[in-house]
């Protein structure tokens, strides 16, 4: 795409504004952001196996981002929105994308050196969120549920001609548990090798494609699931539009509720959210096991709260108002590591499409002001404290690297600098943020226009310091080469 005439001044002013949005609180003492949730033996590599890094959905990774050298970026045009980019033990990225035309979910195997698509495979179309939350298993196979309610394991291999192909290695129907018209929104493996799933209609279940067994539990009427689910040795976390759950299953695979905690879902959906309720995929984190606590953000109005629970009992540790300096609403999963949690605002973010059952928002629209907050659980577990609160306009789910000690994300700079407006002429920057202060320490221009819109999707940090970031039109490959 030719460079827009206004780019030099707008981008320079945008970068200056982004760097100026530093910490609103005094600098804090250094924090050790460890341990991460334990590695699930039935998932791919730690940090790149799921949309949120690991099955605990920590959005933290043991891999370092790009080094301190000059940064480069390349846009890989796939004519698709690509919310899920995962990287297997073999180093090959696998992306699950939805084409702009036809909206039939398509799996791409990407070239690690360039990000170009080496092979693709279409799967049956479902709902807007159906199939988005896939993961890589311990054999580098993409595990997803398609629009026909089939649990798929999609593998890749070399062809006789030396190219690549994607193929369905295994399929198990979930139709006995998921009624027609419903769709699976989240899946994750447990420590016994079963696949847990949750549907938009509020059904939670387990599927074992080794035996063909499928079991399900229907949550209370009116509760829907709009985000993914998370698994830890203690159980499976699900956040519905009204409550947070920890579920467990015995040897028979039949799911049951270990505990349930309702939250304030507010008077309505907020602009910049996809459902009326929490926008969080539940996040396991903690200073001892990496899963001591479970956290989500509620939907209270006007200011929402970060809620932290003890994983073992469900007892509430704290409720802390967050995103106070920008828009207080979030569709993103919190980032959790050690004693710290980070939550980014999506309030007012201009999504081009919403789920059919999203309903109206209150207000009908709003500017995208941005916001990023850090909350720490006290060492003795007696409560939590807000450490800092900034106005960073993160346009992606942030990713914390415990290797380089930085938060990595993409920020959105308005075409009209120092305003909160959004337009198709906005510019997008890769950004690194100091988690101790909330201050932006480095930015790199990615591009201008909606072609580069990261749409609050997640970036994956791959070995070698390469970041694969989904956009509304494909994938950005960011690194030092």
Describe this structure in words.
This protein has 481 residues and is mainly β. The chain is globular. 3% of the residues lie in helices and 40% in strands. The model is unreliable at 1-13 and 20-30 (pLDDT under 50). The relative contact order is 0.18. It has a domain at 7-124 and 264-479. The chain is built from one helix and 34 strands. Strand 4 (93-99) and strand 5 (106-110) form a beta hairpin. Strands 1-28-29-30-31 form a five-stranded mixed beta sheet. Strands 2-34-33-32-27 form a five-stranded mixed beta sheet, with no helix packed on it. A four-stranded antiparallel beta sheet has the order 3-4-5-6, with no helix packed on it.
Features:
481 residues; mainly beta; 1 helix; disordered N terminus
| Average predicted confidence as pLDDT | 92
Radius of gyration: 20 Å
| pLDDT < 50 stretches | 1-13, 20-30
Helix fraction by DSSP (H/I, runs of at least 4) = under 10%
Largest sheet: 5 strands, mixed
Give the termini separation: 21 Å
Structural class: mainly beta
Strand content: 35-45%
Strand segment tally? 34
The total count of helices amounts to: 1
Shape: globular
* Spatial strand order of the main sheet: 1-28-29-30-31
